[in-house]
Design goal:
The protein is an alpha/beta fold and 298 residues long. Helix content is 47%, strand content 16%. It is built from 14 helices and 9 strands. The protein has helices at residues 20-25, 27-34, 38-46, 49-52, 55-75, 90-96, 102-119, 134-142, 167-176, 196-206, 230-236, 244-253, 267-275, 287-296, and strands spanning 3-8, 82-85, 125-130, 147-154, 157-162, 180-183, 218-219, 256-262, 280-284. Strands 7-2-1-8-9 form a 5-stranded parallel beta sheet, with helices on both faces. A 4-stranded antiparallel beta sheet has the order 4-5-3-6. Helix 7 (102-119) packs antiparallel against helix 10 (196-206).
Length: 298
């Protein structure tokens, strides 16, 4: 297990001021953020947080932040052998591996965000369910109309997407089984059938689009396998569960022994450690963490 993977966080990781010190230091980072709509760039660095949390802002913001961290790593001589991204993070992973260029990825992210934003209904959302097996959570959702397992994060943590007025029933059912349901900072019930309309819009948008062959292996949320047929996977990505646990296990089996989370927070590396505590994890989300990661590769 001597290969290094870069993993990119998705919606929910956004934070006002993310990458601000990297923006000051690296020309490649400035170029990325300066490519965004000026209003989105302003929200990233100045807030407010509730405006940044909106899907139409959070997705392009995180797309830029994830790739900015990767660009700063590259300037410091740190590159990975393969990639994966969680939910929205799969788009910067595709760019990192050469399947899309930056502009193509940004155009897609903006379209994707608008489609998902329109599809999301008020009071729908997602909740992390902790302390129960994925099998138990699937059985709970089978009994609740409008609740769907959406992200299989690790053994005892699965995210559930829920429709309007469903969260209380979900939380009660989870609590009765000695688990806990915590709402996430997202504005829709993503990766579930509640996103079917957005998935259809994305499918139509991607028709006729050309993609490059991956220069490095990138693993799909939908299949947990190395990428095949981007147009199909990216449309299915909208309303299919994220198979993160299985993805990481498959990457480890393929020889990846170090995982670098590039983007705000440490959620993904925390999940990787829970999946397999024997692999090495590091994070790059600001100048201090970048310098620390660079020391590991000196």
């Amino acid at each position: 297990m001597n290969k290094t993977a870069i993993i990119f966080p998705g919606q929910g990781a956004q934070k006002v001021g993310m990458c601000a010190d990297l923006y000051e230091k690296f020309e490649s980072v400035r170029k990325i953020f300066d490519s965004l709509d000026s209003s989105v760039k302003k929200i990233i660095f100045e807030g407010p947080q509730d405006l940044l949390n909106l899907t139409i802002h959070a997705q392009p913001a995180l797309y830029a932040a994830d790739l900015a961290c990767a660009a700063a790593m590259k300037e410091c001589g740190i590159e990975a052998d393969g990639a994966a991204g969680f939910s929205l993070g799969e788009i910067p992973a595709l760019v990192y591996c050469g399947v899309m260029d930056f502009s193509q990825g940004l155009e897609f992210v903006n379209f994707r965000a608008n489609s998902m934003h329109k599809c999301a209904k008020k009071n729908s959302g997602m909740a992390a369910v902790i302390g129960l097996s994925s099998e138990k959570i699937i059985s709970i959702c089978d009994e609740i109309n409008g609740a769907y397992p959406a992200n299989f994060n690790c053994g005892n943590q699965t995210v559930v997407a829920f429709s309007e007025n469903t969260f209380e029933s979900l939380a009660d059912a989870v609590s009765s089984c000695k688990g806990k349901a915590l709402k996430l900072a997202v504005s829709g019930a993503f990766h579930s059938p509640l996103m079917d309309k957005a998935a259809e819009e994305v499918k139509n948008f991607l028709q006729g689009k050309n993609f490059n062959s991956a220069a490095k292996p990138i693993y799909s949320n939908v299949t947990a396998q190395a990428y095949q047929n981007p147009s199909d996977l990216l449309s299915r990505h909208i309303n299919s569960p994220v198979k993160w646990h299985e993805t990481i296990e498959n990457m480890i089996d393929a020889g990846f022994g170090t995982f670098i989370e590039a983007g705000p927070g440490k959620t993904l590396t925390g999940l990787v450690q829970k999946i397999n505590p024997d692999v090495k994890v590091v994070n790059v989300f600001d100048l201090k963490s970048l310098e620390s990661t660079g020391d590991c590769y000196a």
